[in-house]
Amino acid sequence: MDDERLVGCFRQGDHGAFGELVRRHEPRLFRVCLRITRDPEDARDALQECWLKAMTGLAGFEGRSQVSTWLHAVATHVALDQRRLKERLPDPVATSEMDLLLPALPGPAEQVVGREYCRRLLAGLSPAKRSALILHYALGLSYKEIADLQGVPLTTVQTRILRGRRAFASLAEAAPAGLRAA
């Protein structure tokens, strides 16, 4: 079945048709987003936003171009918007600011070791994951507040926090025993 028919099926309520469009076009659209954002995580975020826009925009798709061309344009615009936003806004949680945000630990010795350990683990995360984790866990911001602050969809924040927690745990497990916090 060609893309235009899949769009027609999706418009009639067949959500499997949209899944087929995703399966067909996601690899190419991911490469488009990656080329523009220059960061795999940002590219995944842009691609996620692209599919959300595509899902809502297909109702108004007029067929003046091929579906693949239209999806390419959506992905390009979303990725460019994301890159512009990222270039305009500094990382809200730079590594030098981590000391202010990390929670206090029981005693002076544990504080030094634990803070340095957490700092190293956090520094190993991408800026997007690191800032989402710190904004949520250290500053207590809700997912919605983080989404508003960073100008990204709520689902992007949820994904960043989930992936950030997983990456943080992986880094902690991989750390040599001598570096682990007491």
UniProtKB/TrEMBL annotation:
Signal sequence range: none
Question: What keywords are assigned to this protein?
Answer: DNA-binding, Sigma factor, Transcription, Transcription regulation
Q: Where is the RNA polymerase sigma-70 region domain?
A: 21-87
User: Residue ranges of the RNA polymerase sigma factor 70 region 4 type domain?
Assistant: 119-167
Keyword Transcription regulation, does the record have it?
A: yes
A Pfam family (short name) is Sigma70_r2
Q: Which family does it belong to?
A: Belongs to the sigma-70 factor family. ECF subfamily.
What name appears for this protein in its UniProt entry? RNA polymerase sigma factor
